[in-house]
């Protein structure tokens, strides 16, 4: 993992002191809320429906055990004993007091953490595949590239006040686990089929929200020394030509759509040629320095199969189910990446108590080379677990309400905070997620349905990624009541797709019945081994829409 050097440490400490002064001036009235707003946003501080919300950066989702413990400590002292893990691999505290924020930032700095650029119109937290460095299908670990981009983009003077927020994701595997095509810029590591050289494919113009769009290929292949200069060119073109008269049309996806990808590409290539790579040549040395922090771990030479784990599974049905759904194939024999679901039946998706954070920290320290990962699906991964240790880990997880065996299943629901917290929301999302979780709680039913994700947003801004849910749910206000639109067919993987609307919005109490109708079509008409998304692509929207209409007509 990356470790701060003297420059990182000084930058973060200076920023803490600067914001502490700004908070002091807001509290004594020297700064109005209008003056304070852009300053607090640049430091990850939102004013939500009931209180401030502080968003902590977790670059590419990677945490040390000491960092998790520090987050737990902050949750106990300055919040309400829990934190919320987000779809951008960050963590949010929902109840901090303004006067306490400087103290929180100082505690974060003690653990090599910060809130810089987790909000505001700037380059946000760089995200990555949560199985980075350990995935069996990986071409190259994307974390050094993500850290390289993070350092380049942090407080970049030219891009500190963009027209809108800007999000970058990096993946190093053919299977996309970072939702590249839903980002302003997606960077895919690939290998040239002829020369075998490692390079990058660059995608641009993706995004969800009120105008969902799929990212398009901007450059098929860049060598490593070209990457930062090329990103610089992309940001310059966007910064100069993107809309600033209308915040709803200020994203790079709108610019690329309005002028066309070919015109946008020509502008970027011209800027890239003007920049050249000479000014970035020294960054290859910096990349090598960064990459050294991510050198492969000192793995043991282990057999491919754990007899200890096999024997434990044979006598524990819950453990067997956990192994089936929550373990992912590691690149090294005898190891696995273990996902801890933060989606216990009836729980608020993505929430973890301070005690649970400490438990995960202890497990990471003892069993996973002192490392944990936040996923964009709002779960936590222990990336380097010996198969022999899985029974002991599972036992501890079970004792602490963290052993839910549902990763990738219908109760592994992605969900934004919604109207329970967010000032932008138009409907509640957490209560609906909890209802659906209970509705599909039966493990045998979940297994029968198979791979399927539900994603819920409480407003059109789509923080719950509903557009790319196999089943997506959007909560809106309609005539003073909450109404939920349902889409199906969304896909966040390399087979990226936006969901299609089934029909008019429904009241929350009818959403489970509507989903039951949709699933009945799937279960009746699927072919052997076919997942929900595969069946949808074969059958098309019509049979699902007809089933949904039975519920919608009853409402009408």
Produce the secondary structure layout:
Layout: H1 6-27, H2 33-41, E1 45-47, E2 52-56, E3 62-64, H3 65-78, E4 82-85, E5 91-93, H4 101-110, E6 127-128, H5 143-153, E7 168-171, E8 185-191, E9 198-204, E10 216-223, H6 227-241, H7 252-259, H8 261-275, H9 283-292, H10 307-314, H11 317-326, E11 327-329, E12 335-340, E13 351-353, H12 354-367, E14 371-374, E15 380-386, H13 390-399, E16 414-415, H14 430-439, H15 443-449, E17 454-457, E18 471-478, E19 481-488, E20 500-501, H16 511-525, H17 532-539, H18 542-555
Parallel strand pairs: 6-7, 7-8, 16-17, 17-18
Antiparallel strand pairs: 1-2, 2-5, 3-14, 4-5, 4-13, 8-9, 9-10, 11-12, 12-15, 14-15, 18-19, 19-20
Helix pairs in contact: 1-2, 1-4, 3-12, 5-9, 6-8, 7-8, 16-18
What features would you describe in this structure?
The chain has 556 residues and is α+β, with helices and mostly antiparallel strands. The protein contains 18 helices and 20 strands. The chain has helices spanning 6-27, 33-41, 65-78, 101-110, 143-153, 227-241, 252-259, 261-275, 283-292, 307-314, 317-326, 354-367, 390-399, 430-439, 443-449, 511-525, 532-539, 542-555; strands spanning 45-47, 52-56, 62-64, 82-85, 91-93, 127-128, 168-171, 185-191, 198-204, 216-223, 327-329, 335-340, 351-353, 371-374, 380-386, 414-415, 454-457, 471-478, 481-488, 500-501. The strands form four sheets. Strands 1-2-5-4-13 form a five-stranded antiparallel beta sheet. The chain has a five-stranded antiparallel beta sheet with strand order 3-14-15-12-11. The protein has a five-stranded mixed beta sheet with strand order 6-7-8-9-10. The longest helix is centred in the N-terminal third of the chain and has 22 residues, at 6-27. The protein starts with 5 loop residues before the first helix and ends with a helix.
């Amino acid at each position: 993992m990356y470790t701060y050097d003297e420059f990182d440490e000084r930058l973060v400490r200076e920023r803490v002191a600067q914001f502490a002064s700004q908070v002091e001036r807001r509290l004594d009235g020297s700064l109005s809320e209008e003056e304070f707003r852009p300053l607090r946003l640049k430091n990850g501080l939102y004013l939500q429906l009931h209180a401030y919300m502080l968003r902590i950066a977790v670059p590419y989702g990677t945490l040390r055990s000491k960092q998790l413990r520090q987050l737990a400590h902050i949750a106990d002292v300055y919040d309400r004993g829990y934190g919320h893990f987000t779809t951008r691999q960050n963590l949010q505290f929902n109840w901090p007091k303004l006067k306490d924020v400087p103290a929180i930032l100082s505690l974060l700095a003690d653990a090599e953490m910060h809130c810089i650029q987790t909000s505001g119109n700037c380059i946000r937290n760089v995200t990555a595949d949560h199985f980075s460095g350990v995935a069996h299908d990986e071409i190259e670990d994307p974390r050094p590239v993500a850290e390289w981009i993070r350092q380049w983009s942090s407080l970049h003077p030219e891009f500190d006040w963009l027209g809108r927020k800007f999000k970058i994701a990096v993946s190093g595997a053919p299977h996309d686990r970072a939702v590249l095509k839903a980002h302003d810029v997606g960077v895919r590591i690939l290998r040239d089929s002829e020369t075998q050289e490692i390079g990058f494919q660059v995608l641009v113009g993706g995004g969800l929200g009120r105008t969902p769009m799929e990212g398009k290929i901007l450059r098929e292949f860049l060598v490593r020394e070209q990457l930062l200069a090329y990103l610089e060119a992309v940001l310059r073109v966007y910064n100069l030509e993107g809309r600033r008269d209308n915040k709803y049309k200020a994203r790079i996806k709108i610019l690329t759509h309005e002028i066309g990808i070919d015109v946008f590409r020509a502008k970027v290539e011209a800027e890239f040629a003007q920049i050249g790579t000479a000014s970035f040549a020294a960054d290859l040395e910096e990349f090598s320095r960064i990459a050294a922090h991510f050198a492969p771990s000192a793995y043991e030479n282990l057999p491919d199969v754990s007899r200890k784990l096999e024997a434990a599974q044979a006598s524990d049905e819950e453990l067997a189910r956990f192994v089936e759904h929550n373990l992912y194939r590691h690149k090294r024999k005898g190891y696995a990446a273990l996902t801890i679901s933060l989606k216990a039946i009836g729980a608020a998706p993505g929430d973890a108590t301070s005690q649970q954070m400490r438990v995960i920290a202890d497990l990471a320290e003892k069993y996973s080379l002192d490392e944990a990962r936040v996923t964009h699906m709002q779960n936590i991964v222990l990336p380097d677990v010996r198969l022999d240790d899985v029974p002991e880990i599972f036992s501890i997880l079970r004792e602490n309400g963290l052993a839910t065996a549902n990763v990738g299943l219908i109760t592994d629901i992605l969900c934004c905070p919604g109207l329970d917290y967010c000032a932008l929301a138009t409907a509640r999302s957490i209560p609906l997620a909890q209802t659906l979780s209970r509705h599909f709680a039966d493990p045998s039913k979940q297994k029968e349905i198979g791979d399927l994700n539900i994603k819920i947003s409480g407003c059109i801004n789509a923080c719950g990624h509903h557009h790319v849910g196999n089943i997506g749910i959007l909560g809106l206000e309609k005539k003073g009541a909450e109404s939920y639109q349902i889409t199906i067919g969304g896909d966040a993987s390399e087979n990226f797709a936006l969901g299609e609307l089934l029909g008019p919005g429904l009241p929350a109490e009818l959403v489970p019945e509507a989903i039951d109708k949709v699933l009945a079509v799937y279960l009746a008409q699927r072919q052997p081994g076919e997942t929900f998304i595969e069946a949808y692509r074969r059958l098309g929207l019509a049979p699902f829409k007809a089933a949904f209409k039975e519920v919608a007509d009853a409402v009408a």
